[in-house]
Amino acid sequence: MGEEQYDEEQSTEVQKKFLFVFKRAPHGTIYPYEGLEVILIMAAYDQVISAVFTDDGVYCLKKGQETAAIGVKEFSITFKVLEQYGVEHLYVDKEALSARGMTEADLVTGVEVVDKETIANVIREQDVVLPF
Amino acid sequence: MLFTVNKSPFTAGNLKSCLRYVTKESPILLYEDGVYGAMAGTALEPEMKETLKTNRVYALREDLKARGVANTIEGIQLVDYAGFVDLVAEHNICPWI
User: Fold this and answer.
1) Which residues pair with B95 in a beta bridge?
2) What is the CATH number of the domain that holds A93?
3) Which chain B residues contact residue A129 at CB under 8 A?
C-alpha cells in the first residue's frame, strides 16, 4: 500500500528539460566548475539534463589537462562520467571547436560534436537553460 | 525562448554567439551593457538589422538612459522594467550572459 502511494507520487512529478550551457574556459573563472557541480546535484532529481559546450566552453573538454601546478582541480574527467548520472547528451559546437584548432579527437570521450542548427533546436526545446 | 544578453558586444562574444543560435520566433532582450548592441551607427549595426528581419529585439530603456544612448537602431523596441517582466513571464529564458 505504502509502495503504491509512493509510485503514484512519482508519476505525477513534473519532469523538466534542463540545459547547461558552458561558454567559458575551465580555469580562468569558477563558472564551469560550478556548472558541473550543479549538474551533479540536479542529477539526483530525475530531470532530463543535457549540456552544450560552445565558445571557450569547448576548452573544458580538452584532453590532457594537468592542473596540479596551478593548484586547481582538473575536472574534464568528470564530464566523461556524466552519462552514468543520467545526463543524456553533451553537445559541442563544431565551429567553436574548429575555430580553436581542435577536432573531436582532442576532447574527452562521450561528447557529440554537432552544428549550430542542432544546438539551436536543442535550446528551443528546453524548459530551463542555465549558463555557466 | 527569450534570449537575454547583458555584456557589451565590443568586449564579449555573447551577442554574436547568441545570434548563431536564435531561431526565428525567439525574441532577444538586451540589458545592462548589452544595450550597447542596440546603439545606431556601430560596427554591429548591419548584423543587428539583419537579425531584425526575422526576430524581435528589445532593449531596456533604463539601461540605455543610464548610458546616454539615445540613438538606437530602427526597429529595436524599447521596454521598461515592467516590459522586461512581461517578456520574462511570457517566455522560457535562455540567458546568454
Assistant:
1) B4
2) 3.40.1260.10
3) 1, 92-95
